[in-house]
Design a protein that fits this description.
The complex is a heterodimer of chains A (351) and B (344).
Chain A: H1 8-19, H2 21-38, H3 40-43, E1 50-53, E2 56-58, H4 81-90, E3 97-99, H5 139-175, H6 177-190, H7 195-206, H8 210-221, H9 223-237, H10 240-247, H11 252-289, H12 300-309, H13 314-342
Antiparallel strand pairs in A: 1-2, 1-3
Chain B: H1 2-28, H2 34-48, H3 60-64, H4 67-77, H5 83-95, H6 109-144, H7 149-163, H8 166-180, H9 200-238, H10 241-248, H11 253-271, H12 275-282, H13 284-290, H14 296-305, H15 309-337
Helix pairs in contact in B: 1-15, 6-9, 6-12, 6-15, 7-9, 8-9, 9-11, 10-11, 11-15, 12-15, 13-14, 14-15
Classes of the chains: A mainly alpha (351), B mainly alpha (344).
Chain lengths: 351, 344
Amino acid sequence: MALFTLNPLTRKKVNRFKSIRRGYYSFIIFTVLVLLSCVAEMLVNSRALVVHYNGEWFFPTYGAVIPGKKLGLDYDYETNYRDLEAKFEQEKDTGNFVILPPIPYNAFENDLRDGEYPPFPPSLETRHYLGTDTIGRDVAARLIYGFRTAIFFSLILLFVSYLIGVSIGAAMGYFGGLFDLLFQRIIEIWSNIPFLYVIMIVSSIMIPNFFTLIAIILVFGWIQMTWYMRTVTYKEKAREYVMAAKALGASNKRVIFNHILPNTVSIIVTFIPFSIANGIIALTSLDYLGFGLPPPTPSWGELLSQGSNNLESLWIVSSVIVAMTVVLVMVTFIGEAIREAFDPKKHTTYE
Amino acid sequence: MTQYFIRRLLLIVPTFIGITVLVFVITRFVPGGPIERMIAEVQQASMQAGGSMQSAGSGVGAATLDEDQIRELEKYYGFDKPVLVSYWEWLLKVVQFDLGTSSRYSEPVWDTIKERLPVSAFYGIVTMLITYFISIPLGYYKAVKHNSHFDHASSVVVFIGYAIPSYVVGIILLVVFASNLEWFPMGGFYGDEFEDMESIWQQIGDIFYHAALPLLAYVAGSFAVMTFMMKNALMDNLAADYVRTAIAKGIPFRQAITRHAMRNSLIPIATHFGNNISVIIGGSFLIEKIFNIDGLGLLGYESIVERDYPIVLGVLVISAILQLLGNILSDICVAVVDPRVQFR
């Protein structure tokens, strides 16, 4: 705890946040989900966690491909651990065993069977707990990896757009003058662009990958934070403590970084959950329309579009809708709680 | 004030040019533009006619369309000139309400858009009416009965509408009410028998029968924000000194709200008013696609997929103008409701 000490005001805010139960619990659950998704390879994977074969231990999850021959199979390509498990179970008393992740499929493999055509409904026996999609990929696997894509997509988007927004906005508000005027005009023009449509046009042409898609959205997404930041800086600049700092001879750099920015953090923080939700929604909508990340990237939007085109396979659309609803409602709970904690409103009521 | 709005109106021009230049230039450097499409179509036709099997690749086009034909096509689409020259020509035509000819339907873009516009406008206007009709009374009631059971219960609905994007609500409605319960049709603006219906009332009924689910999705997307806004504004105003004074003087509570607090609480709602215009276009790509409604959004979406750039640009022109006008309209509304606001 000695690493960083919170000042009493911040501690009060944190405590107030903790006292808003649904927001606090959502925050904990959400953080756990994000952390778990970082090690999704150990939970949802076609590779086994542990293989014990003829006295040797293998941990295939993160390493190089282990060819089938090495584990007593008759092929050279990557071992199919589900088959290996079945094989080890048949030849008993050898002491060999395989431990598979809870969901033993990855997000890309097609589980094909003879005489049957996907989508397959959920089944405990085949361990497709949420069924498969129209080309036989495991829905649960794609859902979880899709969550990871969406979450990191919106976190990176958030970080970069806040970086741009805070720098330009603070500069606009603090320095004013021609710089402010120039960017005001740019923002005025930029904010009139029907931007979902333009993003659709651009990405239909470029076929973006993860980072170019972030860049495309950034081109239109930097405005909001910039504008808030400008207003806030503008207000803070006029306050006495800034004047005092200046009178003491503080440089512009010192006034901005040591005095104004710390005072704007509480406003920036309240926007974060809503930006995360917006990032997820933006990516999912674009994927749904087919202008997002290229296939076969696992994504919620792609699952949504598959599900709504195959309404008879209800498990596809319902699992992605439930996942989306839960995540977005949690993020919004967090957002409400943070806003409440940082900017408590005491209302007057009349009897 | 007048000066400010004149400046805003004049700003439309550079904004409009900026947006269209951007998109125009992008559409120019695309693989798979109209000419490539046409080449592919000709090629496909000849393949189906039993022509030689050619592997797909870059040199294929030349085998099916000769140089002269391609040049003729390029001339037809204005691809033979530099970008800015053909942009200028396009702009001159746009100013005269000529948006060019669709490369997919081979009919004037303006006619195609004109056909779709009423459909989108219908959804936009009805959504707006329903949203105001629900949000203002609901927000009012929630503010007055703050912390009551009704307030908490309705907050759940408002909250979910706020957290989930409207197109996901649309998909949920489609799954539950159209696909499973079969209470409502799966999509479309009206049914197959529309032309044969005898009375206009039947036709209107049919339209609303088809519109029920999409409208619900649209409203779900917009009423939550509006309700929150109404409630918060009203509560802020109720806490303000002038309302406290009014009540202290002995005005009945109801009158204090309707005569004093309510008027000021409508200001934030007014700032939102112009957005409705762009919602007619902007929010509708997804919902129109889900419910297969032949509106402007679906047209724009399909033309992007089909790389029908005259229509892509046409839809962009219309939606950019509507959005620009909508923003100005918002400002005018604010100026009308709030005399304190001064635009410079």
